[in-house]
From TrEMBL:
Provenance organism: Naumannella cuiyingiana
Organism domain of life: Bacteria
Region (Disordered): 95-117, 206-226
Enzyme class, spelled out: oxidoreductase
Listed name of the protein: Deferrochelatase
Classification lineage: Bacteria, Bacillati, Actinomycetota, Actinomycetes, Propionibacteriales
Skewed-composition ranges (Polar residues): 207-218
Domain named Dyp-type peroxidase C-terminal: residues: 217-402
Length: 414
């Protein structure tokens, strides 16, 4: 029997409690009140042409983990990916990682779920899996490593920590409850014990991008709206052009059709320096207003920026070295990214400064056209760069979606 995590806390008691609340509410309003839908009860389908966690509306919390594969045995890796598929299909629907659950198995054996999500709703959990460039040669798959899956080049000003970079596999867990996201990664790591080990992981909060027009634009750690001009789920043609891997582009990519590429950058933001910067300078550096997120050329948040508009003295209203001017499709051969990043604060440094910033995540159809040229431009010319330090990095091929009965990585390893 598969019980939902809510079921585990006692179906009878829960039903009674809901019934009583519903009755009281109905009486007070003089009608039978439907309780408002609980957003934490939301689930996203695990199966489909694309993995969830890319075009699905961005949740509020993140636990991202990169794994090293400890074995050279291809069958063992395939077994792990099968086991991860089963667990992920369950976890994302609000079930325990294994069929016995945290307390239902043998008293003499470790439980097949760690238990910290008992009683928690599904919380919109999505789990998104990717494979890194280093995996291929080790498993005799060199011929199937796409040209696009080449480690990112060094960019000017990079200060990358190898202990926060790269990895053979990655899992992005997003949920509206941090404990649900952490629980998912912990259980996947537990299932993988002996085959994989966590290389590094990153927690995030306050999604810094909206990926649906239904979502209000959140703010980053510099206080600016972030995600205004992002690609949105409601734009399937643009997602086809800029996010998904198409058929027939590179024979080495045939197993990846319907997948994507994920670029992760841990970007420290020098919060204390920014906080001593005038509002005028902050807006000049971004190219948008802080209050509304509107382009400095005028209009509301969603107005198109006019890079030719000039103000007093003939100077452009949007500084050509502002972040928005240099990241805009006009400056990047029409390229757009699906950004899905999160704020992070990992405590404070010994100097009392916040170890904080943006864990930048972008899903792209090809990093060679959709990230590398843009980041090269930003790293050398963007006025924002003065306030940033890139401290972690990784590139993964994001596996295509899984059909019922299929498994993650099947097209690559079967
Ligand atoms: C290489 C790609 C990008 C990196 C790295 C990056 C870092 C970064 N961005 C902000 C804040 C904002 N970015 C905004 C827009 C924006 N940024 C990128 C790309 C990268 N950003 C793009 C493609 C865009 C959209 C440009 C456009 O089409 O107009 C904005 C404006 C609001 C918005 O549209 O999202 C802000 C604010 C930070 C703080 C940061 C590193 C920490
Ligand atoms: Fe940006």
């Amino acid at each position: 029997m598969t019980l939902s995590r809510r079921g585990l806390i006692g179906a009878a008691g829960g039903a009674a409690a809901v019934g009583a609340a519903g009755l009281a509410g109905g009486l007070a309003l003089g009608r039978t009140a439907e309780p408002p839908p609980d957003p934490l009860a939301r689930t996203y389908p695990f199966h489909g042409a694309h993995q969830a966690g890319i075009a699905t509306p961005a949740q509020d919390r993140l636990h991202f983990a990169a794994f090293d594969v400890l074995t050279d045995d291809r069958a063992k890796l395939a077994r792990l990916l099968r086991a991860w598929t089963t667990a992920a299909a369950r976890l994302t629907q609000g079930l325990a990682a294994g069929e016995q659950g945290p307390t239902g198995g043998s008293y003499q054996a470790p439980p097949d779920d760690t238990g910290e999500a008992i009683g928690l709703p599904p919380s919109g959990l999505t789990l998104t899996f990717g494979v890194g460039p280093a995996l291929f040669d080790r498993f005799g798959l060199g011929q199937r490593r796409p040209e696009a899956l080449t480690p990112l080049p060094a960019f000017p000003g990079d200060a990358l920590d190898p202990d926060r970079s790269d990895g053979d596999l990655c899992v992005q867990a997003c949920a509206d409850d941090p404990q649900v996201a952490v629980h998912a990664i912990r259980n996947l790591a537990r299932i993988g014990m002996g085959t994989v080990s966590v290389r590094w992981s990153q927690l995030g909060f306050g999604r810094t991008s909206s990926t649906s027009t239904a979502q209000p634009t959140p703010r980053n750690m510099f206080g600016f709206k972030d995600g205004t001009a992002n690609l949105k789920a409601e734009e399937p043609d643009l997602l086809d052009r800029h996010v998904w891997v198409p058929a027939g582009r590179d024979p080495r990519e045939d197993w990846l059709v319907g997948g994507s590429y994920l670029v992760a950058r841990r970007i420290n933001m020098t919060i204390e320096t920014w906080d001593r910067t005038s509002l005028a300078e902050q807006e000049r550096v971004i190219g948008r207003s802080k209050a509304e997120g509107a382009p400095l050329s005028g209009g509301d948040e969603f107005a198109a920026p006019d890079f030719a508009a000039a103000g007093r003295g003939g100077l452009p209203l949007i500084d050509p070295r502002s972040h928005v001017a240099l990241a805009h499709p006009d400056a990047n051969d029409g390229v757009q990214l699906l950004r899905r990043g999160y704020n992070f604060v990992d405590g404070s440094t010994r100097l009392g400064r916040l170890d904080a910033g943006l864990f930048f995540l972008a899903f792209v159809t090809d990093p060679r056209t959709h990230f590398i040229p843009m980041q090269t431009r930003l790293a050398s010319r963007d006025a924002l760069q003065e306030y940033l330090r890139h401290t972690g990095s990784g590139l993964w091929a994001v596996l295509p979606g899984v059909n019922e009965g299929g498994w993650l990585g099947e097209t690559l390893l079967a």
